[in-house]
């Protein structure tokens, strides 16, 4: 199993590489938040061990970026003991939280628990359809090589569809993800935003080939 350790403490990284390597784990490392995202996209680890207090991007920002395209289990290993830090990390998408200093036996047990819960394949950081390229890490969209500006809501809809390529995403699921509830009165909001996305991304918005409507059910993104 491949583990990404992201921490700006070189001594801890060295010790963890030796210890986890001795237990049969394949270890890759990153010294700051931006490098952690890049290494995760390149190496596709099975588990991420992540410190919160890192330069360039902090741990919560790294979690949010990873959750844009990946369901990889994330174990936060941090010296921050406040409940607020734990809540922020877990709300951002972390799976577990261990405070420093920690016992290696406890860390190994938590890794084994995360490994048992694995099963959802890691998504791809870049999704393409037609002339459109959606970078879920950088949160950018291009069409024919030219940048496309999306509103925050348009991006959230496209991101959700891109994270589930080919799958039917129901209207209720989108309403809950974007507005926080599936009980929102849908006054054409979704139809309006999907229409705007088609205008920006489809070659022929009137006859879409990629952003498809499943009548009475929801929407589907196909390549």
What does this structure look like?
- The protein has 223 residues and is of the alpha/beta class.
- It folds into 2 domains: 2-117, Rossmann fold (3-Layer(aba) Sandwich); 126-221, Winged helix-like DNA-binding domain superfamily/Winged helix DNA-binding domain (Arc Repressor Mutant, subunit A, Orthogonal Bundle), CATH 1.10.10.10.
- The chain has 8 helices and 12 strands.
- It has helices at residues 10-22, 33-43, 59-67, 83-92, 104-117, 152-162, 171-179, 189-201, and strands spanning 2-6, 26-30, 47-50, 74-78, 96-99, 126-129, 132-135, 140-143, 146-147, 169-170, 211-214, 218-221.
- A 5-stranded parallel beta sheet has the order 2-1-3-4-5, sandwiched between helices.
- The chain is elongated and about 60 Å long.
- The two termini are 31 Å apart.
Could you name the CATH homologous superfamily of the largest domain?
Answer: Response regulator
The poorly predicted ranges are: none
Strand order across the biggest sheet?
A: 2-1-3-4-5
What is the CATH fold-level name of the largest domain? Rossmann fold
Task: Give me the count of strands.
Answer: 12
As a percent range, the share of strand residues is 15-25%
H/E series, N to C?
A: EHEHEHEHEHEEEEHEHHEE
Structural class: alpha/beta
Count of all domains: 2
Compute the separation of the termini in Å.
Answer: 31 Å
Radius of gyration: 20 Å
In the CATH hierarchy, what is the architecture of the largest domain at level 2? 3-Layer(aba) Sandwich
Assigned CATH class of the largest domain:
Alpha Beta
Mean pLDDT: 86
Overall 3D geometry? elongated
Helix content: 40-55%
